[in-house]
Design a protein that fits this description.
It is a single chain. The protein has 907 residues and is an alpha+beta fold. Helix 15 packs across helix 16, helix 24 (668-685) runs parallel beside helix 30 (834-859) and helix 28 runs antiparallel to helix 30.
């Protein structure tokens, strides 16, 4: 992103007027005009732009995101902004009325020598827009789409406006940019000079060597080093030619110039082949000269004799013949065996069913034997039948050129194929089905049929001609499907019947090209009832959050809690993923739950340069990897445990003896321990039906082939844990000299606040959602731990419990005063009162169970005492920290670079 000085220099270099500069400055300083959404069909999200230092919105990952990738890696693009301020467009209607409206383009772009707006639309959408809104959209003479009104507005301020369609996307280049993005974003550790020189010497000796030969060599060169050299263009691969995941098709050159030279040689060779067409100089070969057909009669040493259609002979010298051939005036005539009726023949064969073909084959064998004088298969066939077959055979041979067609029985065309009911009655039935039955009222078939019969009687239709109820039901079934269910029950009920979207052109693989390219995060409420490990009370069904790698189907992390889905579950599953694999997926796909739109979640992913995508609402097929995993977890694990809730799917069958709440024996900690063991051991090592290998094997093989990318690893230290802690919407609070800082109505203190220099200054803060007694403030280049004024009461209280207590206090005071500010003292008193026990008991029990989950995350077992020598204590995902809680740093002050904790702009 340009600094103010660089922007001023750019304006002076391009001689911008005061109006142009002011227009661009307003765009550069403005927030996006709107927050985009993908609607029912598109995947929207945020792209962490390294060039802009902020998150860029996109409405479709197959359109706007593709343009963002090109803008991000285009040397000519200096800056680009999503959803710039709206522009005012106006035109005059045919009636003479002036129509004005505001229009928000998708992007505003600063190039090295120009600036302007860009609007993104698909080709299909543009064709519809041209028909419906010809004033707004048009197709230019050069085939480029245009928006005349927007172009006119841009010209008034001396800038450009262009329409960008999906026809301009090079999907091979898109795949390669995504594949190499890890090397673009983070610099790979320096490669040894000897390794680089060895690789260059091999490529110089064999320009155009296939990439797979370099990857599978025995010289000790890692795939990461090769891909890093490609990303930095120290060796050259045409990223638009072939995907890097198909290394056998990728040619490697020392530099771009050498590649262009070889491409020019290849093109000139193909041009020479085209400029000298081949004509077979043998007698009777047909050729075309000046629009007339000739036949070669003789080809001698000096002359070639031709004969035209009238039988006249023409003699040409060999030199003159070759000259005309090279100029394209003489061309070879290719003969073809296809007749103009070949499509009709093909259509007849397609309409014939297997029984028709079998009968035709049998008749053809009998006729062959009859024509050759051999005995037939069936001696009982009458002569009259044989003569009939012969006649049909000869007629078809004359008509189609193939006598076999005459032997087809065409039983599909026999009989009366038309509807027997009168057209008037059919139209009336269709009217009642579409207008009376297919509505949100969801009328019963019998009621609709009764209304239909009444309408028939009123219309004067005789009683014996009115269709029966059975016929009416069959007609309803003719209309059944997605459209009927949509009209009666709505979008969600009709979604399972919606036809699948088949991609006819290859774009980007839906599951990525490598491990850790695409990850899915989703929640599900597990089908099992749990008890409290201390009181034995039934606490209900827990929620599980999964992070799954789409390429290998491996479960990267799983987290369990009693709380409904929230940003806390998102942060925890990411924390566990880094704990186990030291990295995050490059692209994360989620649904449209509010927890995935939280500022904490979006900022964390933006900081680690992960692209966030939101699938359309109520469209589970976009996250089929996670949805299928939920079913697998139920069938392979949960449905084999006591207390599972399978029977509750049919509530009328539930009795006291089989009620899952009465049979519950599992606790949260013990279930989470075994769920981790199933996810990280059993499922991980079992061959996946879609892959043919186990998820663990698929991930390991993918990393070995496409690079381990260790330079993108995240250290699982206190810095990472603090980054996953949330902050307030503003992110900063003011330091009071005697009371410290206040976060959500609770004051916190640290001895560092005694320094007079930081009094009345603003400091960055973060709080622990699972411990309201502590918070963290960034003071003098380090994070310090702050203690609440009511630490003994608030210690260990979760954010959820504090929220419930606050809501209860506000509810009790609403009759006394309109606004009631909950102070920390009031809150602490309430939390210690007996009344609070009734309101918060359930939440406290659930929070108490979370300590067992934290033990499983840190140590892999539920027991309080961790004995590393005990063979029974199997460590499922060991942690590197000694702290018993993953949220509490071991030191009061942590040395962290202050720049590392700045949040990206996210809208």
């Amino acid at each position: 992103m340009l600094t103010k000085e660089e922007f001023d220099n750019w304006c002076n270099r391009n001689n911008l007027s005061a109006l142009q500069k002011k227009t661009i400055e307003i765009i550069r300083s403005s927030e996006p005009a709107r927050r985009v959404g993908g609607g029912r069909k598109n995947i929207s999200g945020f792209y962490p732009s390294q060039k802009m230092g902020r998150s860029i919105q996109f409405e479709s990952h197959k359109l706007e995101l593709a343009l963002i990738y090109q803008l991000e890696h285009d040397w000519n693009i200096l800056e680009f902004y999503d959803q710039p301020p709206s522009i005012k467009l106006q035109y005059q209607s045919p009636t003479g009325r002036n129509i004005c409206f505001f229009y928000t383009p998708d992007f505003f772009v600063l190039r090295r020598t120009s600036a302007g707006w860009i609007e993104c639309k698909t080709e299909k959408e543009l064709k519809k827009k041209v028909e419906k809104q010809p004033k707004l959209y048009s197709s230019g003479e050069n085939g480029q789409w245009e928006m005349p009104l927007a172009t006119e507005y841009a010209a008034q301020v001396g800038m450009e406006f262009c329409v960008w369609s999906d026809a301009q996307i090079n999907w091979v280049l898109q795949r390669n940019i995504i594949f190499l993005e890890d090397y673009y974003r983070s610099e790979y550790p320096p490669i040894e000079t000897a390794t680089t020189q060895l690789l260059l010497s091999i490529i110089n000796s064999q320009p155009g060597i296939a990439l797979n030969q370099l990857l599978h060599q025995n010289w000790g060169i890692k795939p990461d080093e090769i891909y890093s050299l490609i990303a930095t263009e120290q060796i050259y691969v045409d990223l638009s030619a072939a995907p890097l995941v198909e290394p056998q098709n990728c040619k490697v050159f020392p530099d771009r110039t050498t590649a262009q030279t070889y491409q020019s040689l290849k093109s000139s060779s193909s041009m020479d082949t085209i400029s000298l067409p081949i004509v077979d100089l043998v007698p009777s070969t047909p050729i075309c000269w000046d629009g007339r057909s000739y036949f070669i009669v003789q080809s001698g040493e000096t002359e070639i004799t031709l004969r035209n259609q009238l039988g006249e002979l023409v003699e040409l010298g060999n030199a003159e013949f070759n000259r005309l051939l090279q100029l394209g005036k003489i061309t070879a005539l290719t003969t073809t065996n296809s007749s103009p009726l070949s499509e009709q023949i093909t259509d007849l064969l397609k309409k014939a069913n297997p029984a028709d073909l079998e009968k035709a084959n049998r008749r053809y064998r009998i006729l062959q034997a009859h024509f050759s004088g051999q005995p037939t298969e069936n001696q009982t066939i009458p002569e009259r039948t044989l003569r009939d077959w012969q006649a049909k055979y000869r007629i078809a041979q004359q008509k189609y050129g193939y006598g076999y067609i005459g032997l087809l029985t065409t039983s599909h065309a026999k009989g009366n194929r038309y509807r027997k009911l009168p057209q008037q009655i059919l139209e009336l039935m269709t009217k009642f089905i579409t207008q009376d039955y297919e509505t949100h009222k969801q009328k019963r078939k019998s009621e609709v049929y009764g209304a239909f019969v009444h309408a028939c009687s009123t219309a004067g239709i005789p009683e014996n001609q009115i269709p029966s109820y059975k016929t009416f039901i069959q007609e309803i079934k003719r209309h059944s499907g997605y459209t009927q269910t949509l009209k009666r029950q709505g979008q969600r009920a009709a979604y399972p019947q919606q036809p699948f979207y088949w991609e006819l052109e290859l774009t980007t693989p839906r599951h990525g090209d490598r491990p850790f390219e695409i990850g899915h995060i989703d929640h599900t409420q597990l089908d099992i009832e749990l008890r409290c490990s201390k009181t034995g009370l039934v606490l209900g069904r827990p929620w599980a959050t999964f992070l799954v790698d789409a390429y290998s189907r491996r479960i990267l992390a799983v987290y369990m809690t009693f709380d409904p889905p929230s940003y806390r579950s998102c942060m925890m599953v990411l924390r566990i993923g880094v704990m186990r694999h030291s990295r995050l997926p490059q692209i994360i796909i989620t649904d449209n739950g509010k927890e995935f739109h939280s500022i904490y979640f979006e900022s964390l992913l933006a900081w680690f340069e992960c692209t966030l995508k939101h699938r359309p609402p109520a469209a589970s097929r976009f996250s089929g990897v996670c949805e299928r995993l939920f079913g697998t977890a139920n069938t392979q694990f949960l449905y084999n445990l006591t207390g599972n809730t399978q029977i509750t799917k049919n509530v009328r069958l539930v009795t006291k003896s089989v009620n899952p709440k009465n049979l519950a024996v599992w606790t949260l900690g013990s279930l989470y321990q075994y769920l981790c063991q199933w996810a990280y051991s059993e499922y991980d090592t079992t061959p996946h039906p879609a892959l043919g290998v186990s998820p663990q094997s698929a991930l390991t093989t993918g990393l070995a082939e496409y690079g381990n990318r260790s330079h993108r690893q995240i250290c699982n230290d206190e810095n990472w844990k603090l980054l996953t802690l949330p902050s307030t919407p503003k992110g900063q609070v003011k330091v009071h000299p005697s009371q410290g800082i206040q976060i959500r109505g609770i004051r916190y203190w640290s001895n560092t606040f005694k320094d007079p220099e930081i009094h009345h200054t603003y400091v960055n803060i973060r709080y622990d959602p699972f411990d309201a007694g502590t918070a963290y403030a960034y003071v003098r280049g380090q994070w310090v731990k702050c203690i609440s004024e009511y630490y003994s009461i608030l210690k260990g209280r979760s954010e959820k419990e504090i929220w419930l207590a606050t809501a209860e206090l506000q509810k009790r005071q609403q009759n006394h005063q309109k606004q009631f500010l909950v102070r920390a003292k009031k809150l602490a008193e309430f939390l210690t009162s007996a009344e609070a026990e009734e309101v918060l008991l359930s939440q406290r029990l659930m929070d108490a169970q979370m300590t067992e989950v934290f033990r499983v995350i840190d140590y892999g077992i539920v027991t309080n005492q961790i004995d590393s020598q005990s063979p029974e204590s199997e460590i499922i995902c060991p942690a590197t920290q000694e702290s018993s809680s993953p949220f509490q740093p071991s030191a009061n002050s942590l040395s962290i670079n202050p720049q590392e904790l700045q949040l990206f702009d996210s809208y």
